[in-house]
Amino acid sequence: MMIRRTILRLVQKLGYDLVPTRVTAAGKQLVLRPLDPVGVEILSDPAFQASCRQIEGLTLLDTPRLANLWELCRLTDPGSSIVEVGTYRGGSALHLANCAPGRSLFIFDSFEGFHHLDAKLDQAFNQEMFRDTSRANVVQLFAKRQPAPTVVAGFFPASAAGLELAPVGFVHLDVDTYDSTRDALEFLRPHLAAHALIVVDDYHRTAYGVDRALEEFVARHPEWRLLPLFPSQALLIPRSWHDPVTPPAREHP
Question: Which of 55, 80, 161, 168 is at a distance of 20 to 30 A from 16, taking alpha carbons?
Answer without folding.
Answer: 55
